[in-house]
């Protein structure tokens, strides 16, 4: 059984409220942190090996150490709660059921970074959660954990919640900052990076909800102890939101030592494939990461078990090329059609492209049109090569990672499931009435 750090109290009734959270030892880590120096906290975060839980997996301590500290210029912490990646809903769970864990993590992080005004930028579709967060902020303030001169330390901190307008691109950190400044959420060219010029051109750290919540157990048990959980550079615990054709969709906390097979089939987690069907493929880290067929998902190319961690999921290079990503674990059973699935994703990325760069603006729409044609049985064999060519021209040639996110699913689908594309093209009549999965199993 995986060790629980973030969700250990999630089952307790009323844990959403300050009184219950405090009774369980809540804000104990904040009290401990406020007696430390900001540099000591930073050392703990570095020692923990925590990697950003939003998708990129960049070491959090290193990110914090890049923060510029020019004299007299305010600095900010911005929590990225714009959780819009299809298949990902673990931050929603944290904010809805454990809002004080996030607020406590923000207090410690703000103190460490020297942010007197910090923000939570939350996706517009999570319409009921800002009220929960604002209530938690008011409770923390009433108890002296936010506001002026917190715990007599002389440190002041206010937290504000900003609702987004429902654009996926605002999950990209610089687009988020633009939106937070009241502008259209277009990603910025980097450099300068937010650590130097972020919100209102001030040094800013942007971190994911889960990353900031993880600061609480890190301070609680120390960075060194946190680093002992997990394996290699995949330290601590990770929240996984599991969905698709499984018996038990939900949010699970894992310690990254379990195998993918155990995660999918054990009753403790996904409980196996629904209706006793066969596993066909999985997208292990949110819709942007490459899809992996069952044979490579359960075993590495060397025949070793594949584990639910950053290194093992990416292992295999060209063979899998996938990632832990945001932890949005999407399972597809044998009945699913990969062409249809890829077309749905292409439509999503085309719709969400901000339109600033030509390869993304034009390429995503072009890929969607070709995929739609193939899926309807109106494609030609050369369309597969054209699709491959377009995704190659998008990848690495855009301002922000949305271009890569749109290209990778198409590349992986063609690499692993070319036969399905060919089936649609060779069987135009059949592909109009049934999908590849249902026709083949
Ligand atoms: Fe906008 Fe796409 Fe360019 Fe990102 S890659 S800046 S979403 S056009």
Describe this structure in words.
The protein starts with 17 loop residues before the first helix and ends with a helix. It is built from 19 helices and 11 strands. The strands form 3 sheets. Strands 8-7-11-9-10 form a 5-stranded mixed beta sheet. A 4-stranded parallel beta sheet has the order 3-2-1-4, sandwiched between helices. A two-stranded antiparallel ribbon has the order 5-6. The chain is 44% helix and 12% strand. The model has no long low-confidence stretch (mean pLDDT 94). With 441 residues, it is α/β, with parallel strands linked by helices. Helix 3 (38-48) crosses helix 6, helix 5 (90-97) packs across helix 6 and helix 14 (338-352) runs antiparallel to helix 15 (358-375). Strand 2 (117-122), helix 7 and strand 3 form a beta-alpha-beta unit. Residues 169, 187, 353-357, 360-361, 398-400, 402-403 line the site of iron/sulfur cluster. The site of iron/sulfur cluster has 14 residues, from helix 15 and helix 17.
Summarize it.
The protein is of the alpha/beta class. The protein has 19 helices and eleven strands. The chain has helices at 18-23, 28-33, 38-48, 60-65, 90-97, 99-113, 129-142, 173-180, 209-221, 223-228, 260-265, 294-298, 310-314, 338-352, 358-375, 381-394, 402-426, 428-433, 436-440, and strands at 76-81, 117-122, 158-163, 204-208, 230-231, 234-235, 238-244, 250-254, 279-283, 292-293, 328-333.
